Amino acid sequence: MFVGSDTVNEFKSEDGAIHVIERRCKLDVDAPRLLKKIAGVDYVYFVQKNSLNSRERTLHIEAHNETFSNRVIINEHCCYTVHPENEDWTCFEQSASLDIKSFFGFESTVEKIAMKQYTSNIKKGKEIIEYYLRQLEEEGITFVPRWTPPSITPCSETSLSSCKKQAAAMAVVIPDAALKEGLSGDALSSPSAPEPVVGTPDDKLDADYIKRYLGDLTPLQESCLIRLRQWLQETHKGKIPKDEHILRFLRARDFNIDKAREIMCQSLTWRKQHQVDYILETWTPPQVLQDYYAGGWHHHDKDGRPLYVLRLGQMDTKGLVRALGEEALLRYVLSINEEGLRRCEENTKVFGRPISSWTCLVDLEGLNMRHLWRPGVKALLRIIEVVEANYPETLGRLLILRAPRVFPVLWTLVSPFIDDNTRRKFLIYAGNDYQGPGGLLDYIDKEIIPDFLSGECMCEVPEGGLVPKSLYRTAEELENEDLKLWTETIYQSASVFKGAPHEILIQIVDASSVITWDFDVCKGDIVFNIYHSKRSPQPAKKDSLGAHSITSPGGNNVQLIDKVWQLGRDYSMVESPLICKEGESVQGSHVTRWPGFYILQWKFHSMPACAASSLPRVDDVLASLQVSSHKCKVMYYTEVIGSEDFRGSMTSLESSHSGFSQLSAATTSSSQSHSSSMISR
């Protein structure tokens, strides 16, 4: 998927016959998330060179990879020419080569992904060309005259000045349709732009207000902010965020309105579901956090940003996770971010200039292998994921001090989850390097450098230390509290046993409704199925260990499909089974074809038995040892919406596509159904 590009070189001949442009393109590859994490990249970069020769009527496109060029070599060449026997025909030629030298042991996987991408791109190429041809026809362009050498005519200074003024005027006019489609500045400069919209008080922000609260904005950036705010006022039900907050999401997506709108709407929904706006007033951190979480706010830096100090090396992350679980830690980090937003507003008023981010000082003295405890790192990665998604452009600078030898290991694990723009704000100092030139004094006044860094200011941040093991809680206790923050609101938990699937019933009145689902596989492996029946199953019994209902402290279990029912007679399968592994998050949707009763089923997935003539695989043996019981656990949320209100399947920031497979010929009830699902690990 094309994300964006930067022009590296551009050349135009004086007569306009030759135009060569070289771009550095940013692409999002549809690859397994695990592979991206191991490779340490979220995007790949290609260099593309387009050479248009209007005199010879040829277009050559050359591309090669920049990312991993020492491991993988990809070259592609496309050529468009005029047919030698019919000038109205265009000839197209394409060739590509792939040479994988090494790729972290995933050579065959990368080769398969590359071939899949290349094949799909060839198929999609025709669709893209036809799309733009139709767009030209809609604009009234059905014929492009052949290039001819320009006739040299003098251009007066008056006409030149007029051209410049007209170009400047076009640069600040943003068509409504273009903004809705999230077009870039290049697309907006086309001659087909509509007439300028007459300015109204809402179409322009006061210059003093911008200078005081928002900072320097170009006319294009100001217009993007106004349009996005107006769209929110017209469509969003609930609290409208402040301009400063909207601006953060726009900056995080380089003022692409479409992308900024998408991530901001997801964040607003998340805030509403979990009442994040009220977390400072309604939630009190546990005493363990107040005593052993070695972090706190400490004055401000030289730019007026609030300063947060974290003594990570002195903090017992393993003890905190064992005593509290991930939920309390995540809640605490969210409260820190909410407090940071509040302090930014205060400092904006105090210093009389916009302050929209804070500085974080992280002291790593004391960091050791204990901090690399896997559940602790997992909790840290999850916290980073939530903060990156909902608090973009809030970190102004991160100062990492006294980094020990073990730090590169932690950095290797964490850095792939951090946005590129955020990573550029990191400054890392080993040993006492922070005391020298270019160190701490460049960013923090001498008077407020904390005492534990040889400064003069007493820092009231807790010193941390080991959490007493007497405060530890068992895994079962933490599990029963539903650790994940979002499970406290709209999500439900259920247990799945071997021979006892969990099922929920959804009644559909109007055909073409859309059933959406979002679930996490917390324990074990399961198989997800969707069935349709014309008649309602018998209501589940309430007995705790009966044939239809089994309850447990970690979630309930309900069975709806009667044992006497036969597949194909009493009910039918409308989607192929989807096997979901432990730890996966699955989001998807199904467009119903008929009214009736739909049953969503989560079923225990058993490992396939090995053939008698072959020995069991090592992976199978290890997997069987990890499953201590025939019990799985899922947390799920479902919703039914009208097809006219449906805008695609539910999405996650940490997701990769995994569509349901085509239905077998024996399943006739869903021959025209549609579905989509997403899986994230």
TrEMBL record:
Segments forming domain PRELI/MSF1: 1-141
A GO molecular-function descriptor: RIG-I binding
**GO terms for biological process?**
innate immune response; negative regulation of RIG-I signaling pathway
Note the Pfam families from the entry.
Answer: CRAL_TRIO, CRAL_TRIO_N, PRELI
Q: Where is the GOLD domain?
A: 487-640
Keywords, comma-separated and alphabetical: Cytoplasm, Golgi apparatus, Immunity, Innate immunity, Phosphoprotein, Signal transduction inhibitor
| Positions of the CRAL-TRIO domain | 285-461
The entry's cellular-component GO terms read:
cytosol; Golgi apparatus
Where in or outside the cell? Answer: Cytoplasm; Golgi apparatus
Cytoplasm among the record's keywords? yes
- Tell whether Phosphoprotein is among the UniProt keywords: yes
| Functional description taken from the UniProt entry | May play a role in innate immunity by inhibiting the antiviral RIG-I signaling pathway. In this pathway, functions as a negative regulator of RIGI, the cytoplasmic sensor of viral nucleic acids. Prevents the interaction of RIGI with MAVS/IPS1, an important step in signal propagation. May also regulate the SLC18A3 and SLC5A7 cholinergic transporters.
Tell me how this protein assembles: Interacts with RIGI (via tandem CARD domain); the interaction is direct. Interacts (via GOLD domain) with SLC18A3; the interaction is direct. Interacts with SLC5A7 (via GOLD domain); the interaction is direct.
PANTHER family associated with the record: SEC14 RELATED PROTEIN, SEC14-LIKE PROTEIN 1
Q: What is this protein called?
A: SEC14-like protein 1
Q: What is the lineage of its organism?
A: Eukaryota, Metazoa, Chordata, Craniata, Vertebrata
